[in-house]
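Session log. Operator J.P. requested a structure for one protein chain; no other inputs attached. Running the standard single-chain path with token output.
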Amino acid sequence: MTSMLTQGPAPGADTTEILVVDDSDEFTRYFARIIALDHPDIAVAVWDWRQDVPPADHDWSHTRLIVLDYRLGDRNGLDWLAKLRSRPSTPPIVLVTSAFDDRVRDRALALGAARFFRKDELTRRVISGLVKSVALH
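Structure written below.
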């Protein structure tokens, strides 16, 4: 189940969306605030991380990017990444984490993550550049 944040345009036929899957409400609000400031035409949706991975028949037609946390409570974002990347229609996925680990980064990239970032690297400038390079193409 997704729920739209208040930032961004209302969902509709022409809406471009970024999906955030993160157990940190603080990070999700921060990310959505940056998108609202720099890309007001893009909606930010939030997938409830306590649910399972979106189903195989999920409609990704408006989603241009998935921002996925490595730690989702007691779950592992790499497992989600592997499932999602096995589906051809899944948009690019950026894996984010609070603590850097070379092995996690290498595994994420091997599984098909478009990018990998520590959350403290995700400044307004980096997020805006990421959206321009990945989500708007």
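Operator note: DSSP finds four helices and eight strands in the chain.
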